[in-house]
Amino acid sequence: MAQIFHPSMRVISRASIIVVFLLVGFVGWVSWDMYRSGYFTDVNVPKEQPIPFSHEHHVNGLGISCGYCHTSVEKSAFAGIPPTHTCMTCHSQIWTGAPMLEPVRASYRTQRPLEWNRVHDLPDFAYFNHSIHVKKGMSCQVCHGNVNMMPLVWKQSTLQMAWCLDCHRQPEKFIRPVEEIYNFEYRPPQDQIAFGKELVKKYDVKTKQLTDCSICHR
Amino acid sequence: MLFHLIITDKTVAQHDHIAELEHQPLVAKGESYGSITEKITNDVLETKTPRSMSVTLAVTSMLLLVFVLAIGAVLLKGPGVWGNNNPVGWAFEITNFVWWVGIGHAGTLISAILLLLHQHWRNAINRFAEAMTLFAVMCAGLFPALHTGRQWLDYWLFPYPNTMGLWVNFRSPLIWDVFAVSTYFTVSAMFWFVGLIPDLAAMRDKSKKHWQKVVYGVLAMGWRGSAHHWHRYETSYLLLAGLATPLVVSVHSVVSFDFAVSLVPGWHATIFPPYFVAGAIYSGFAMVLTLMIPARRWYKLESFITDRHLDYMAKVMLATGLIVLYGYMCELFFAYYSGSLYEMFMMKNRIFGPYWWAYAALIFCNGLTPQFLWFKSVRTNVTVLFIISLIVNVGMWLERFVIVVTSLHRDFLPSSWDMFTPTIWDWGLYLGTIGFFVWLIFVFVRVMPMISIFEIKHLLPWRGRIIDTSADAN
User: How far is A33 from chain B (nearest CA, A)?
Assistant: First the structure.
């Protein structure tokens, strides 16, 4: 009886076993990396905006604090995007004719708000509240990064659940005094963990609750 | 043994067909090594598909379309297309899931436990029963997977390093289910495939067309039947049988935990694991008979699957059926003995409540019908046996329906009481899986040797084993 397979099949058939493992490993590695990459999470990818508003210039250069524009950060779930009026407090006086700012003036004239492109968009099934975080000593900087150095804003954090849990499981690693939340120059002390635990106690952060499903998924 | 043989001679001379049964060979006289290989490989490679089979295939293909449609409806519209409501959040899906998983159990029992117990007669039916197990588990797994509602996220059921920083809830019996069923499928598939290898080589060698040789050749993985090969084969097959054996008990025990771990009256019972396992084997053997009786006739396999085989399977069915009946009686007793208002109400509601007909039919199908199997004349009457197997299949489905729906529809709060009425999609998906299942069985019969060629050769009378009938008659 004639042979069905060429003798090279001896090698090929054995190699195929290894190839299957390699293939599974490769697919696993690619999907692991893809879900954590900037391509998927937009981390470190500056977002285009209708006006190239520079946080670097306004915060670092001019010294305007976060709360000046994002007024509701201490009071509500949403930190707030400033209305055109806020821009015009200054820009009715300076750079009044700058072509770059024409959309702002147009918005002011027509009473139609500027449409910014959202950078941080949490999934709808996660209830996030800015005020509680800020009141308990979570700085803007911890989640949003050094916004004072961003010409156009990008995401510093993945906003993936594992990232939320990093802090919800051990808030003492990131907590700082409430007075320091807007301070980009703040440096944590050497003994952050011990200091953080003190603050957690002081601010009455209920760490046991922080990992309940219903804390975020209501 | 000598004594036994003397008796044999006498009985053969004096008694009729039924009395002879115990002493019939497990492979009919006149078969040989060559004829067995010829017959079984030819059924795949040469024989024209029997007409009755083509007709049944056409019917099941239509059901297969219903299956596709019913899945499509759930994917497009969501589980709202089903009749599930509050409080009956689990209905047909879990009923069907448990029913299908249970059916699978006969295959594993036949292939693993009967192998380890040296029940050689299982050689004739193990291949077919294992295939049935695989297909039944496929159907079973589909129901919870569709019931999740967001089927595209079903991979969340498995613990994998995810971006949520979370593991699955290991304390939930539903996760134990995921492990139990996926392990079961993997081990069954491996067991089935390893057992097929020597036969796939036979198929390769008997094939006439080149592409058939290539396909069977690849699947046979270079089997040449050397002593080395056989040695390794026997070792691995025995090991796999050892692996599969605990699964016969564990899988359905875990499935029963879905219910038993909860606090719902009618579910929260310690008898559930053994009672579920017995029910699983009971329904599984019923399904083997349902499928094998027609297959045996259409493909003329009477000389391999003899009346004696059917008789043995009927006995297993009778034994497990009695355990199941004992379970029903225990449930009654528990409700009474617990003194719990809710338990007693549950039982009363089950028997006299709005679903009384389901409970009555269940007792008829599972309690009364198998009692006929005490009679040898029933066990050897193929037609009657086929009808009984169908009734038992229905009965076992009703059992799960009664457990799932009657326990839920009258829960602790009378204000939330409601009836469950299945919709056309509930029925569509259920009948659809039956179509899918039978269709897969047909495909299997068409492309693979449905009886283990090399194992059934062990049963040839002159090999010396089979003459000692006392070893085989249990």
Answer: 11
